[in-house]
Design a protein that fits this description.
mainly alpha, 14 helices, globular
């Protein structure tokens, strides 16, 4: 009993689950202002600038933390499930803010990013609040039918999960691994990156390869969402939550990135090279709009490799590897993901050998 009394608890009662999405929501509202604070303080107060950017990264971390805590219930109620899914959505704040910014630019709406962001998220929060208020007050009652349906749907999606993995493997070989390696080559200089990029483009911009690659990405998004929804109903450990969180992050990142490359850049005849990616010549820290790309790209690299690490764990478990051993391999892969994400981010911010 004494141990139970002293155990740290994030939510003091089951009724708190209905409103546990409010802290991630508040953090998301602050996100544009944290980026603006970083830009304003970068040249004058480096310490404050670093704190502001760290807080911007923490928005995604906070959403992840709440999704993890909410994932402990083996059979979530309707209210806790809504809170859990909203928390997952807040994880994707960086690509959502970038996507919205590009759309506003295409619509020639300038200087309204923070206001539109606040309005959209407030509308989403109002909808979630109405859902929570109109559901049963006895939130301790488990939605057994919904949980059973979620488990049955998960088993029925086994073939889709395999196809999702095969499609992902093809994208890794053809595009993602070469693309990330190309970014790492930037440590050797912009010219080295440019030279390798021109060679790689002969592969992934081939008349047959590029459309196939886009179709594969579209399949990844749609199949990923089909797999994501029922899995959010299940009890989740840390690796499960990371797989779900990275999946929703990558969904919006890919949508944002494809829109930026094929609609914004190519429509206006802009070469999507290294200079474009790092907002040269000003750089990612030298432009008020471009600072959003720092967490947008950095977290994306980690989420991509982290998603693969979690997928590796599932494959290992499916082949009879013990949970502890599969977890160790996944943890090693996550450590590597962190190193690669830091290295690519540093290169994009101007680090060179």
């Amino acid at each position: 009993m004494a141990l139970a009394l002293h155990r740290p608890v994030l939510f003091s009662s089951s009724s708190d689950l209905a409103w546990s999405w409010l802290p991630p929501f508040a953090a998301v509202l602050a996100y544009p202002h944290l980026l603006a604070a970083f830009y304003q303080r970068f040249n004058g107060s480096p310490v404050l600038a670093v704190l502001a950017m760290a807080s911007a990264f923490a928005v995604t971390a906070l959403g992840f933390a709440f999704a993890w805590r909410l994932g402990h219930a083996p059979h979530p109620t309707a209210r806790s499930l809504t809170s859990r899914r909203f928390a997952y959505l807040t994880v994707a704040a960086p690509p959502l803010f970038t996507f919205m910014g590009v759309l506003l630019y295409l619509m020639k709406i300038e200087g309204a990013d923070a206001a539109v962001w606040t309005g959209l998220w407030t509308a989403a929060a109002a909808w979630v609040a109405m859902l929570q208020l109109t559901r049963r007050s006895d939130v301790d009652a488990v939605d057994e039918a919904g949980a059973a349906a979620g488990m049955q749907a998960t088993r029925g999606l086994a073939a889709l999960r395999v196809t999702h993995g095969i499609s992902a493997a093809a994208l890794i070989v053809v595009f993602l691994a070469p693309h990330l390696f190309n970014h790492l080559v930037a440590w050797l200089g912009d010219q080295a990156h440019q030279s390798l990029m021109l060679q790689l483009r002969k592969l992934y911009r081939h008349a047959w390869v590029e459309p196939a690659m886009l179709l594969a990405m579209a399949f990844q998004l749609l199949s990923g969402l089909a797999l994501w929804l029922p899995k959010t109903r299940r009890k989740a450990n840390l690796f499960d939550v990371l797989q779900l969180a990275s999946g929703i992050y990558l969904t919006f990142f890919i949508a944002s990135h494809v829109n930026s490359v094929f609609v914004l850049a190519r429509h206006f005849g802009v070469d999507t090279n290294w200079a474009w990616a790092v907002s040269a010549p000003a750089g990612l820290t030298g432009d008020a709009w471009s600072v959003r790309l720092i967490p947008h790209y950095a977290i994306a690299v980690f989420m991509l490799l982290g998603h693969l690490a979690c997928g590796l764990r599932v494959v290992l478990l499916g082949h009879g590897v013990s949970d502890a051993r599969a977890g160790r391999w996944a943890s090693i892969a996550l450590a590597g993901a962190t190193i690669v994400a830091i290295a690519i981010s540093a290169a994009m911010l101007g680090a060179r050998l």
